[in-house]
């Protein structure tokens, strides 16, 4: 059997679809191949059965074959093999691979599977020591169940808990690029859960929301609180106004108005309440310490918290789309269930400390925020493994240290801006630009393989494109597998003269972005080539 299957029945209606020079392989029909494999995977010989399962996993990528095999009740046969529990190692791995490939065509509903099958697949995930390939296929099956069936979602949730998944992430194996990307994606999705609160304005008339502000006041000034029935209404209003001023709100009469700005909206109030409840001593110390200073030297806690929350959302890109090529994640955010809130608590204390070090006044508020942003960014660059490490890094980035770093960077920059350097740069720039041009042309001539992503999230198709040696024609075409090395021009069936190219459109401006909502998460990697006569849509991701 060939390594990769693509079945096509040759007849008079499609003979014109076959181009001259195409290499065809005569093989058995999809039905005959499916029938043979259906028999072979039931062989009593383990070696013969293994080879049959390998071929089945390979052939199942083709939808024509998949339809024939499914018509032979092949899915039921595979599930019975899994439920029996008699296959292990490579036999089980290729059985699950074939199952995943067949189900990926969307021919069979996920709701047809039994609880026994779900429990068996879940058992492979729950085992601490399991073959990597089996674990990957099992997770893929459970993911598809969760995504495609609400009923199966609840059944899978009963079998798999977060605690059972964590050990698989704690292995000694170094984090590779794929794992780093997945952790980055998880980080983005986790932070994007904050977007709703970040974009929600506070309703000044909502009593439940106003009670949160009352709670902040109660925790900070508990000894100064008076019963609601004591004194006149005017006296109580005066007392509230005084306390809200001490808390650092801009609107002393109705601080709820401060949270109508989005972003950060209600997320800022959530952070303040978390800080007050979980770091009560630090909260009270900051509020009372600043309320005892002169008005112009106090660091307003309320205003600072709102602006800091907005800044942290910008730094962590809350609400932004993920980048499909990014591997940048911060380990410390996976060490605490409320990592963003704890991150805020550390940073608000840093802000208060930096304010004192700068001897700032109310006019210096924006300057302080700029310094705090720099402190946070420099500490994050060091990729601390825990929030405690992050806090320790900040201790070494005092305002004085930031000034030293800025001075050092300024000196280095001035060296590069000196007249001799500028003259040398101007002299060699044309040569460097020509070198860059040649390198880019050479890379285009070598060509690149792109991975196709279909609406069913399949990623097994490839597409290759390269520039001709005379730089006049783009050769491109589909591939069945990722090539090892360059693909010859002769094997790429389609051509596009460079002279006919009008423009290259990238990202969200691509015409097919309007048609494929599922690809919006990956818009930064999309491109289309626009010719002078029509639009040639190349709906693939850049590698």
TrEMBL record:
Q: Name one GO cellular component term.
A: guanyl-nucleotide exchange factor complex
Please give the Pfam families that the UniProt record associates with this protein: ELMO_ARM, ELMO_CED12, PH_12
- What GO biological process term is on the record, naming one? phagocytosis
Keywords of this entry: Apoptosis, Phagocytosis, SH3-binding
* InterPro entries per record: ARM-like (IPR011989), ARM-type_fold (IPR016024), ELMO_ARM (IPR024574), ELMO_dom (IPR006816), ELMO_domain-containing (IPR050868), PH-like_dom_sf (IPR011993), PH_domain (IPR001849)
* Residue ranges constituting the ELMO domain according to the UniProt record: 208-380
State the superkingdom.
Eukaryota
Hydrolase among keywords: no
The entry lists its GO molecular-function terms as: SH3 domain binding
Q: What does this protein do?
A: Involved in cytoskeletal rearrangements required for phagocytosis of apoptotic cells and cell motility. Acts in association with DOCK1 and CRK. Was initially proposed to be required in complex with DOCK1 to activate Rac Rho small GTPases. May enhance the guanine nucleotide exchange factor (GEF) activity of DOCK1.
PANTHER family, alphabetically?
ENGULFMENT AND CELL MOTILITY (PTHR12771), ENGULFMENT AND CELL MOTILITY PROTEIN 1 (PTHR12771:SF23)
Q: What is this protein called?
A: Engulfment and cell motility protein 1
Q: Which organism is it from?
A: Sphaeramia orbicularis
Corresponding gene? Answer: elmo1
């Amino acid at each position: 059997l060939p390594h990769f299957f693509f079945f096509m029945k040759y007849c008079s209606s499609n003979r014109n679809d076959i181009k001259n020079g195409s290499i065809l392989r005569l093989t058995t029909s999809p039905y005959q191949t499916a029938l043979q494999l259906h028999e072979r995977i039931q062989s009593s010989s383990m070696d013969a059965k293994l080879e049959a399962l390998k071929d089945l996993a390979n052939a199942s990528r083709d939808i024509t074959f998949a339809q024939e095999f499914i018509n032979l009740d092949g899915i039921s046969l595979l599930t019975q093999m899994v439920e029996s529990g008699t296959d292990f190692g490579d036999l089980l791995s290729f059985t699950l691979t074939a199952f995943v490939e067949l189900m990926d065509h969307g021919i069979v509903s996920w709701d047809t599977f039994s609880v026994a099958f779900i429990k068996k697949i879940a058992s492979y995930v729950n085992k601490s020591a399991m073959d990597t390939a089996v674990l990957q296929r099992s997770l893929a099956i459970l993911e598809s169940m969760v995504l495609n069936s609400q009923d199966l979602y609840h059944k899978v949730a009963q079998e798999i808990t977060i605690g059972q998944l964590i050990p698989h992430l704690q292995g000694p194996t170094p984090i590779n690029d794929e794992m780093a990307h997945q952790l980055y994606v998880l980080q983005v999705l986790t932070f994007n859960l904050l977007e709703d609160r970040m974009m929600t304005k506070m309703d000044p008339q909502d009593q439940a929301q106003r009670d949160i502000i009352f709670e902040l006041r109660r925790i900070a000034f508990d000894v100064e609180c008076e019963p609601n029935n004591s004194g006149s209404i005017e006296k109580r209003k005066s007392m509230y106004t005084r306390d809200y001023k001490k808390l650092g709100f801009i609107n002393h009469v109705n601080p709820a108005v401060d949270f109508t700005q989005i972003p950060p909206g209600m997320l800022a109030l959530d952070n303040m309440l978390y800080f007050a409840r979980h770091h009560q001593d630090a909260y009270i110390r900051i509020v009372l310490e600043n309320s005892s200073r002169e008005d112009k030297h106090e660091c307003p806690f309320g205003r600072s918290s709102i602006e800091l929350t907005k800044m942290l959302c910008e730094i962590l890109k809350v609400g932004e789309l993920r980048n499909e090529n990014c591997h940048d994640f911060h380990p410390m955010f996976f060490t605490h269930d409320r990592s963003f809130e704890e991150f805020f608590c550390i940073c608000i204390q840093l802000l208060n400390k930096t304010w004192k070090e700068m001897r700032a006044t109310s006019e210096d508020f924006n300057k302080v925020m700029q310094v705090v942003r720099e402190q946070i960014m420099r500490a994050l660059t060091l990729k601390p493994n825990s929030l405690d490490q992050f806090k320790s890094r900040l201790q070494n980035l005092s305002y004085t240290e930031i000034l030293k770093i800025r001075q050092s960077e300024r000196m280095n920059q001035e060296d590069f801006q000196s007249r001799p350097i500028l003259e040398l740069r101007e002299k060699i720039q044309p040569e460097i630009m020509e070198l860059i041009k040649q390198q880019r042309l050479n890379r285009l001539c070598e060509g690149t393989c792109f991975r196709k992503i279909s609406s069913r999230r399949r990623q097994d198709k490839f597409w290759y494109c390269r520039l001709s040696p005379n730089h006049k024609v783009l050769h491109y075409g589909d591939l069945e597998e990722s090539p090892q090395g360059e693909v010859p021009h002769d094997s790429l069936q389609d051509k596009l003269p460079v002279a006919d190219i009008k423009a290259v459109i990238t990202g969200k401006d691509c015409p097919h972005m309007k048609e494929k909502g599922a690809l919006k998460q990956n818009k930064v990697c999309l491109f289309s080539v626009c010719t002078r006569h029509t639009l040639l849509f190349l709906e693939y991701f850049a590698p």
